[in-house]
Amino acid sequence: MPFAQLIIGPPGSGKSTYCNGMHQFMSAIGRKCSVVNLDPANDQTSYPCALDVRDLVTLDEIMADEELGPNGGVLYALEELEHNFEWLEKGLKELGEDYVLFDCPGQVELFTHHSSLRHIFLRLQKAGYRLVVLHLTDSYCLTLPSLYISTLLLSLRAMLQMDLPHLNVLTKIDNLSNYGPLAFNLDFYTEVQDPHYLLPHLAAESPFLKNSKFEGLNEAIAELVEEFALVGFETLAVEDKRSMMKLLQAIDRAGGYAFGAAEGANDTVWQVAMREGLTTMDVRDVQERWIDAKDEYDDKERRELEEEARAIKARQEESGLDGGEDDDLDGLGPAPPPGTSGVSVVRRS
Hints:
349 residues; globular; 48% helix
C-alpha cells in the first residue's frame, strides 16, 4: 500500500522548497520517494519530477485557447486532470510502491471550495494510497493578529473541505526572529490555545478594526475556531534535519506509515533515529532555537561544523583518501546536536 503527502498552501508558503527538501531527506534515510507536480504553472521545479501535469496540460495553452486568466486557467487545468484521471493513475503505477509527494497549486480556491482537487485526492485514496494533507503557511502570519486569525479560518476551511488526515505546518520558522517580537510565546500559536486573547492586539493593529462591527466579526471567528477545536500547527525549518525529522514522524503517525523492509537495512544514525522516534524537539525547543537564542545556536553550529570538517580532513589525510567516501548520508553527515542544519535546498522566491 503506497503512502503519499498532498502538499497544499497559498503561494509563497514554500511548497516546492518543501518537496525538494523532503525528497532529499527521505532519500537520505533510505525511503524511496518520488515527487509529482500537479501545478500547471510550475515550469521550473527544483526537485526531480517523476510525473508532471504539464505533460497533460499547460497553463499557457489553457489561457490562450480558453481566454482565461492565470487563476481561472489553473482551475480549468485541475478540472482537466480530474476528467483525465486515468493519465495520472497510469503514471503512478509506474512508480510502484514509492512514497509520493504531490506538489499542488497555490490557489486557495482549490482547497477551500472548488471540488476538483478534492475529487482527485479521493480517487487517489480509492486507488489504494494512504494520504496525508500537508497545509503549509508562512510563519510570517504570526507577526500580525489579523493574518493569524485569517490563517486559522483558512486552515479550518481546508481541513473541512479535504476531509483527510491533515497537518497544518508553519514554514520558514527559522526566519521568524527577523520580524520582531511576537505577542505571545510560540506554543500559543501552534496549539491555538485561545484566539480570544488576540482580540485586544487585533484592535490595536489598525483603527479600522476598532469598529464595533469588526469586533463582533472577530469575536465570532474566534468562537468558531475554538468550537471546532481542530486547528493546530507543526513547525518547520526545511534546512534543519531535526525539524524535518520531527515533522516526518508527525506525518507518519497521521498516515499510519509502517517502515518497509528496505528501511533499516543500513543502520545509519538518522535512519535509526527515524525508526526509534528519537527526536525530542518540542515547541519550546523550537522557540529557543529559532527565536530566543537563534544567534547563539547559529554560532555554536558554525563552530561544530568547522571542527567536524577539520576532523574529516584529518582522517582522510591519515588514510590517504581524496575525500568523497563518506557514510550513506553524504549530504547529512553524522548526527549533530539539536538544531544543526544539513539538508541542502534551494529556497525559491
